[in-house]
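User: For my dataset I need records formatted as: sequence, then structure tokens, nothing else. Please produce one.
Assistant:
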Amino acid sequence: MAKREEKKRLGKKHRQASTRPKKGKAPRAAGGRGAVTGAVAPKARKKIATKRADAAQAAKTPRRAPEFEGKRTIAPDGIGAEGQRKSVGRVGGRISKGPQKPADMDEQQWREAERIGEELSVQMGRGASGHGAGGVGAGGGGRYGPGLKREGGALGIDPELERDRSLPLVAICGRPNVGKSTLFNRLTGSRRSIVGDEPGITRDRIYGEVEWSGRDVRIVDTGGVVPDDEALIPSEIFRQAQVALDEADAIVMVVDGRTELASPDLELARLLLRGGKPCFLAVNKMDTPEIAVQAENFRRLGFRNVMAISAEHGSGIGDLLDEVFAVLPAAVEVEPERMEGIGEEMEEDAEGPVDAPVRAKMVEDLEDGERPRKLRTHGDFVQTETKVAIIGRPNVGKSTLLNALTGTDRAIVSPIAGTTRDAVDEVVERGGHSFRFVDTAGIRRKGKTKLMAEKLSVIMARKHLEAADVSLLIIDATEGVAALDANIGGYAHESGRSVIVVVNKWDLMTTAGADGLRVFDGKPVVDPKVYEEQVRHALKYLDYAPLLFISASEGINVEQVFKKVELVARERRKRVSTGQMNRFLDRVDFQRASVPMNKRVRIYYMTQAAVAPPTFVLFTDKDVKLHFSFERFLGNQIREAFGFIGSPIWFKVKARNKKKAG
């Protein structure tokens, strides 16, 4: 008790005395090994211990990546590995042998800068190359070359689109809540389709791929079919299912083996049998051998091929695939014509010529089957497809825009908010470029999502956004920019996706009646410049994003979307040489940056370590996080000099004279 009273009496002095260092050797500061600066503040001790632990972990991590162990060196343009042959880069239509050493830097510092830049490039290449492996709608992962699959939406050099069209198609249909989506996910080996206990979750057509016995086929999942239901959404689901049934080569009808046959089952069975295509009946939810014999009771539907399966557990799936593949036509072989012109395609992608020895070596490696690992962030892939995610709040016109871009009724459109649940993708070829548009579900706040299907649709929309290259942020012109629009745009900005702001329903804001007022609500017609200023003010962090005014339902300015997407995708993969960046730094007046003095850093030089999104490494005198105002100032200066329209710019800071802590 006396000791406690003494502590209360001393108060602050007691606390100061308890934190003073003991006699003897003073603790080391965070400045580096062996640097003794006296006492260390209590709040800084935890920070010092964390840095020491990170340094110890980094020392145990190998610095050599697998792609640098082979004979060939796969490195980004402008960053070479010490002691190895540098890859020949192409910058601005000319041959660049890598970055040039500044005149005011010695050889040892330059080698250290190259080594750090190489390590950062490899780390960022690993992180970004794994995004969205398998692509949207891909049935099972990715492989390069003569195969079909893709990695992260960036395709290798193969005629994939032509091969997709030549594959047979199998359609899965049935009434709601019988396990069609579960069977689709089981066959494709993915979780592409949303599965839940609620009936009617799947509404649009969802495509995937299945590989069995050395053959590949396409498969399509349809919504629950109720032929007699005349409501808007059920009738639209039935119309989408009819499209899938018309283009299918074989049809698998799924029924629930634990329930009695319903009238939708009987009507759908009669509809399928009249079509004349190979039809198979899959009696689902036969989880045990004891109840599997009950599948014979469903032969009264008129199907010759009846199989008992369990999509949840995978039993009977092999027998079903054997029966289906036996009646499918063989796929038409597509000759890989573009393999012969690989050198020319790489020239077009890099906007510069390729040396004859380098081209001969590439072609020779491809013919021998040797495919070195390629990093998407380093621009090694020949980008033949641009993946575009259409994001926004519910009922802002995302599905209408997808139908307008594709020229089809690919997605179900209705005035009911939340109509789209599964992500719907469609490939459009325009002007020699391939665009894969992905219509995502409307993103809502967590407090507004009640049903499990809605929660899963929001999660899938976020995943498809992170797997895309460009995002179209759709805004309802009649409602303006809401707080949720700003949050959704922040998702795209933080994930490094390029952004295009699209203001939809613009015709309602500009169509005037006889009295000069808007027909929509009787208010004055909106000036586009004033409206753009309001949008820019609400989305200040997206000042780099282009803005379009369109009307998806009327087709106004829809063609401008293709041009903007192509421009933004090209700017996203732009690379600037280290020499150009150093000359750029000499011209920048950093005194104009409104940064506190204690947050100011001196940049010795900088280099671009990765693309998609463009990432720059800054070698500074301090190892501190850049102040947000300084980062914004430097990003604006880079955009003014080099462009990078619509793409966020990332910065990594490395102190040139930093010593290891510990």
